[in-house]
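Write out the 3D structure for:
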Amino acid sequence: MTTRDETTKTECSPPLDPNELPVSRPSSALSGSSDFSGGVDGRAVPGDFDPPTEWIPPRLVRAVIRGHKGACILCGRTEDVLLHRVIMHHDEGAISTNSLPWLKCLGLIEQDYTSDTYSNIMLLCRPHVAAWDAGVWRLVPSHEERVRMRHQPVVVHDPADSDSDDHGSSDANAGISVSFDVVIFVPGAMPPVQAPGTGANAGASTDAPTAKCNQRVLRKWRNLPLDPYIVFASALPLIGAVYWPPPDKEIREIETECLEIREAWNSAVPREDITLISGLAVWESAEQIL
């Protein structure tokens, strides 16, 4: 692989800031070099660059890798791992919903929250990325978190109003870990997982995940530095969706709790018409939100 020091000899006018050179999704985020500030395939890119949707800023890449200890959050694998956004990773896809305006308008995340926020990015091996994109599995805040979220006060406001109060999460507390469940909607397509407390995430060195998991809900799987509201929103398109095999008792309980949370938040919106002048969303009634 060509190093950044070698490729920066390429003529470019004006030269790019080395800290902001684009990073693509390489075959492995950790293979070959610890330098993540190179461009596509590790090469510097002269002139203007129009990054793909999946592009993640280099400084954020390094922060996420450190935060997740360089290992897939599900199987502990440290080879062939990729950074993947919880929401808004791709332009298109069946499971690709921008929930940020909804969460911002309810005051549940800060107004400057973007898809390139630390707590929206996880580290996964390639098979678990493919399974996520296919809607095979999702993270969901643990039961205790869901109880708290059910009673979370919401305040509708214009996201463009910088003076409005934020009642939700912030990337400033990205170091806080939250407990999450893993919900496996399509167990036959789920790659192997690893028991919590083992493997790279526990400080050991292993790239061998356990056998396929027979459970469909893994309670309190791990504490992760992900935003619980973002994770919750990412699961909503699959909650109550059609999949096979049909939901078991545990999944039905989680789906019921999640739908109750959404209803509680939406019901807190005044019944009169509310127009958000930012243009991010227009709500004619509380029932039409999301």
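Residues 249-267 form the longest helix (19 residues).
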